[in-house]
Amino acid sequence: MDSVVVHLHAAVSLLGRFPALAGVDLDVAAGEVVLMQGPNGAGKTTLLRMCAGLVPVVDGEASVLGHDLRRDRRSVRRHVALLGHATGLYDDLTVADNLRFVARATRTASPVSVDDALSRLGLAGRLASVQAFRLSAGQRRRVAVAALLLRSADLWLLDEPHAGLDADGRERLDQLVADAAGAGTTVLVASHELDRARALASRVVTMAGGQVRANTPAGVVGVA
Amino acid sequence: MTHVGYLIAGYGATFAVLASYAAWIVSKKRALARELPPEERDPRWP
Amino acid sequence: MRSDVTTRVLGTLSIAALALLAVMALVVTPADVNQLDAVRLIYIHVPLATVMYAAFGVTAVASVLYLLPRTRARKWDVLAGAAAEIGVVFTGLVLVTGSIWGRTTWGVWWTWDARLTTTAVLFVLFLGYLALRRVGGDPDTQARRNSIAALAAGIDLPIVHKSVEWWRTLHQKSSLLDEETFLHPHIHGSMYWTVMLGIGAFLLLFAWLLIHRYRLAKLEDRIEDEDLERALAERRAEALTGSP
Amino acid sequence: MAGKDLRIELRSRVATNQVGPFALLVLILFAFALDPDRGVLGQAAAGLFWVAVLFCALLAIQRSFAVESTDGARDNLRLSGLDPAGIFLGKAAAVAAELAALEVILGTGVVVLYNRSLHGPVLLVVTCVLATIGLAAAGTLYGALAAGLRVRETLLPLLLLPVVAPVLLAATRASEAALGTGSGDGWAWVRLLGVFAVIYVAFGVVAFGPLLEESS
Questions:
Q1: Which candidate from B2, B7, B45 shows the least CB-CB separation from C26?
Q2: pLDDT of C117-146, one tens digit each?
Q3: Is this prediction's pTM over 0.90?
Q4: Domain residues for D88?
Q5: C103/B6 touch (CB, cutoff 8 Å), yes or no
């Protein structure tokens, strides 16, 4: 893996006609865990979706894992794992079915078995055969994180991953992020849980108005 | 001259609709043109 | 301005041609032996149908050009939309003149004549396309969706045409009153030239309408881009004032 | 993909609990409308059958894309390794399977309620298969076109029904030939259904990729 995983320069991206990202400059090296903070509507979610190749880059430069997003934003998708606000589960399918579909849908063999992913998130046993619409928000979030483990991705894009998780869930998530970073996976996480997230992060980026305003190593006392 | 009524209806409807459609296009173009700075007002053929 | 000359010339030419057509169609050419003067409707019905197919042809070609990466440009989508709207107007007129003609010969407002039925399906098909165009969203995805919808409608056209024709011709053998000979009487001599004149006149009108409608659509696009620029500036200002 | 869609149907039972009974209800309503005694019902049986199938197809397609309509689901589909053509064929196959099941229910309904006898079963089966493939392919394509748009419930019928009009025409004529109520050569119509199916499956495979990209 070359060193720079994410390179954005003056990147502009639209949500419908609204310029969600109005010129973003950001560089992330391999293995880094970067925490993104900023008010609602600052463009954090759009930035994550852009890095995942889901949103067109209208202006500026944007390349992730060596893929130029302006030329072709589909090829990067196989190497990226996105955990969005919406868990994207199929309500009528059981937890196990949902995960089996995700595992089968990823071309590359998933690094972890479905059962293993379930147990890592404390979902093994009775819960596995429950239909998704019967789950609580926190449980759905756990299943979404489990789905994340099933993808062999070099870059994790987490959008407020702690939302809805109870203490045990957050513990497990932090452990997973730490393991992943340790194994060389780069992580970009947008979160309002400053204390918890900063413990993981090697760098803190502050966003506002669709741009990056501050970019400081985590060691320095964080900018408000 | 038979079917005069039908002929008037047919020709009349056709020309009336086409004329009003043309008028609508031109008037809307003039209205929108006012909102744009003059030099961009009349974009050339592609 | 150069191009304004061409549209002005085009405009006057088409008006002159239409005037000549009216005289030829209503006065000079003879009545038909069976239909008497009702046959004069053919001089606008057939040209309208010709322009209808021409307009949807432009939409299909423009949609293909937009979808091909090499030639992709917003202007093709704008052109496709302009041509489609004109096409729908002409299709409506084809249906109106067709039903009036039906009325003169059978006393009924709608005959399931193969061509009229195909036109009716075409009318609804492209009304759907125009509805889809107005749904909105960001320009690029919207344009791509429009082009695919136009092509999907386009490839359906021959199938509709074939199936309706079979349906009518199968049905035809039984009925005495052969709609075919009535709606398409044998035209000869001056009648033939008048129809050709009609087609020429309406094609000129179509060209004139297309240029203006295209420019109007370009203006609408430009105004949307203006709003986008303003939104971009406001967004950037947000960052400075520290609000979200 | 098809497995997933079908498993959703099995779990949720929407198709069997709601769309199936709806189809039978439509047949009964037609009977009320057309007063069985005057024999009109018998003559029009094939046409009514296919109109009922068309409406059930609309419901199945809207259901098929409602399932994908949650934001997360669409993102996951795009991020998954599945290539768009596979997703299209999968979803179309699932819709086709549902339609086939519905046609069996409706078929028996027509035979029983409208007491029609089957003359050309082979012709009828081939017609149903080809028409179903055509409807599923065109439906899935337009379902994707309208998916994620604000007005998709009203837009889908407006876009899809004119396109599948020839299928209704051809299938009805072919079925009439099979049921002995219509004249003419049913197999000519079947060839038209075949052409329609091939064109829209091919077009769907090509066009589904860009369509999946849309409504980001």
A1: B7
A2: 888 889 999 998 998 888 766 677 788 889
A3: no
A4: 2-214
A5: yes
Question: Which chains have at least 3 CB atom pairs separated by less than 8 Å from chain C?
Answer: A, B, D
Q: Is residue A78 a part of any domain in this protein?
A: yes
What ipTM score was computed for the predicted complex, to two decimals?
A: 0.75
CA distance C123 to C116: 10
Chain D residues with CB inside 8 Å of C145's CB? 145, 211, 214
**What is the SS3 assignment for chain A?**
CCCEEEEEEEEEEEECCEEEEEEEEEEEECCCEEEEECCCCCCHHHHHHHHCCCCCEEEEEEEECCEECCCCCCHHHHHEEEECCCCCCCCCCEHHHHHHHHHHHCCCCCCCCHHHHHHHCCCCHHHHHCEHHHCCHHHHHHHHHHHHHCCCCCEEEEECCCCCCCHHHHHHHHHHHHHHHHCCCEEEEECCCHHHHHHHCCEEEEEECCEEEEEEECCCCCCC
Contact (CB, 8 A) for C84 and C150: yes
Q: Is there a domain that residue A45 lies in?
A: yes
C79 touches chain B (CB under 8 A): yes
Contact between D156 and D58 (Cβ < 8 Å): yes
- Is A197 contained in some domain? yes
D66 confidence band (pLDDT: 50, 70, 90): confident
What CATH number is attached to the domain comprising A195?
3.40.50.300
Residue A223: inside a domain: no
Tokens of A156: 């994790």
For residue range A138-160, list pLDDT tens digits in order: 888 888 888 888 888 888 888 88
Domain with A136 in it: 4-217
- How many domains, chain D? 1
